Structure formats: structure tokens, C-alpha cells
Amino acid sequence: MVLNMQFIEALKLKSKLLFLFISITVGLVTIAIMGTSYINALKKNIDALYFGSLVPVTELNTIMQTYNNTLSDTLYKASRGEMSMEESLENLQRGLTIVKKNWKSYTTHYKTEEEMQYIDYADLEIEATNNYFQKIILAIEEGKNLKQLSIHTLENKVANIKGVIEKLINYEVQSAKYERKRFLNTYDTMLAQIGTILLLVILGVLAILLYVFRSIQRDHSKLEQTTKKLKIANKKLENVSYTDTLTNLHNRRYFNLMYDRELKRAKRNKTYITFMMLDIDFFKQYNDTYGHLEGDAALKKVAKVLKKRLKRPSDYIFRLGGEEFGVLLSETDETNSARLAREICDTVRSEKIAHKNSS
């Protein structure tokens, strides 16, 4: 029962260790997956940020569309008398305000030295174009008629500023593509490095956990083996403590234990119990005559006879001390007990152990 309980406890310990090992493994894999997800999210955010660099393109498109649509269309319609002077004035002022606002916003973004050189040139062109429209606004305010407006000059001004702005737009688009490509290369390299590091860390931790798990398992196995050996040793010690070393019969200590137990059981079950006290006569003379070695041999022969005649599991034989032996029989009545006693004596006589000094 004790061994079964210990085996169950051992299984529980191994199950707990296995559960710990699996839990840590799952945790590390989860961390790796989460880390990869966060990196991908970071990539998307940064990618969106680089696409955000196309904001300047939006501003430049707004400027170009304002020149093409709001300002140019207003002057076309005004020159043909399709729009009143008041409405034309309002549209021109609003268009110039939009151009100035978006150009100011565009120039506040980070620019390289190469960009600044072209932006300075574009700034002059925009200012010249704005001045052109500003003069028309003044003419309208002075009440002049726009039917005499040179459409050819208007188209040249708009075409020129459109070309300037389109170059800026192309540059911004190419720059955004280049920066994004450079970032993606950096991202791929970083992701590979982080993935390699995470993989090495996970493998390292798993290797350590596996080593610890096996070490604990080995130690537990050794402990089990040691416990078994200790139990066997304790059993042997217990047997030794209850066994007579010369005859291998039970000793006086074991007799004291069994006598009390068997007597109580006989009373409880209301059965027979027999105790025989056997003594070898004139044994001191035998030792004096033949020596103690022969005396020990004689004791062994008597013990052998007792073992031969009393074979039931409920028959207990003891060496009580010196040449004294004891026999404890359960469930044996007087008649059978007396018969067994006579048979024991007859068998000892049949051994013909010589004792020349015995009377």
C-alpha cells in the first residue's frame, strides 16, 4: 500500500513537471507570436507614416487645381461676361488665399538641400503667378472690364506654374517610394534578426527546461531506487532483529511479539493454542566434552528437525536462548499437540547425536 502511494506521488510529480514544461513552452511561443504581431503592427504604422509623406503631394495638387479651376475658370467666365465682377473678385481672392495657405504649409515640411534649391525657384514662380492674379484683382476693384484680358497670357502663366508644381509632385512621389523601399529593407532585416534572436532564446530556454526536467526526473528516479533499497535494507534489519543468527529460527524478541498476538487471536476466535518449551538435556556437558563448535552444530541439527516437523504457516519456532527452544501452534488440540511433541523427540533421537559423557 505504501509503495502504491509513493508510485502515485511520483506520477503526480512527473505530471506537474510535464505541465510546467508545457506551460513555459506555450508561454514562450505565445510571446514570440505576440512579438511578431507587434512588429507587424509597428511596420504598418510606420508604413502609414511614410505614406503620410504624400501629404505634401495633396497640398501641391490642391494648389495646381486651384490655379487650373478656381482662378483660370473664373477669368475665362469673366472675360466672356458669364460671371459678375463681384463673384469673379470673390473667387479670385478665395483662390489666392487657398494657394498661399497650402504653399506655406508645404514649405514647412522637412526638405533636403536639393529640394530647397528647387523650392526657392518654385517659390519665385508661384509669387510671380500670384502677382499676376493680384493685378487682375486690383483691376476689377478699379472697375475695369475683363473682356480685354489676354487669354494667351493667362494660359501661359497657368501652364508654366502647372509644370513647376508637377515637377515638385513627381519628386515627392519618388522620394516617398524611395523612403518606403528603404524602410521595408530595414524592416525585413530587423524582423529576421529579431526572429533569429527569439528563436535562439526559445530554444535556449527549452533546452534549459528540458535539462532541468530530466535532472529532476533522474534525481526522482534515484530517490525512488534509494527508497526501495532502504526499505529492503530495513526489512533485512527487521528480519535480523527477529532472527537467531545461528539457527535462523525466530528469536526471543519475536517470540514476545507473536505470543501476545496469537494468544489474543485464540481468545477472540475461541480456538486452541499450544506452546511447547523444548530444552536439550545436559547440553553444558556436551559443550564441555565436544567444544562449542560441535555444540553449535548440535543446535543446528535440532533446529533442522523442528523446521522439518512444523511446516504450517501458523507454526512458529523460536530459539529462546542457549539450548532452549519454543514452539507456538495455532488451532491444534491437546491430542495433536502431544503427538507432534513425541514425533519431534523421536526425530531428534533418530539423528543419533552422540554424547559419551551423558548418563
Molecular structure report:
The mean pLDDT is 83. The chain has two domains: 1-240, no CATH class; 252-350, 2-Layer Sandwich (Alpha-Beta Plaits), CATH 3.30.70.270. The protein is 78% helix and 6% strand. The chain is rod-shaped. A three-stranded antiparallel beta sheet has the order 1-3-2, sandwiched between helices. With 359 residues, the chain is mainly α. Strand 2 and strand 3 (324-330) form a beta hairpin. It has nine helices and three strands.
Brief account:
The protein has 359 residues and is mainly alpha-helical.
Q: What proportion strand?
A: 5-15%
How many alpha or pi helices?
9
How would the global form be characterised? Answer: rod-shaped
Sheet with the most strands? 3 strands, antiparallel
Number of domains: 2
The structure class reads: mainly alpha
Distance from first to last alpha carbon: 57 Å
Which range best describes the helical content: under 10%, 10-25%, 25-40%, 40-55%, 55-70% or over 70%?
Answer: over 70%
Explain the layout of strands and helices:
Blueprint: H1 2-51, H2 55-79, H3 85-107, H4 113-141, H5 151-241, H6 252-269, E1 273-279, H7 283-290, H8 292-309, E2 316-321, E3 324-330, H9 334-350
Antiparallel strand pairs: 1-3, 2-3
Task: Please describe the structure with a list of short key phrases separated by commas or semicolons.
359 residues; mainly alpha; Alpha-Beta Plaits; three-stranded antiparallel β-sheet; 3 strands; 78% helix; rod-shaped
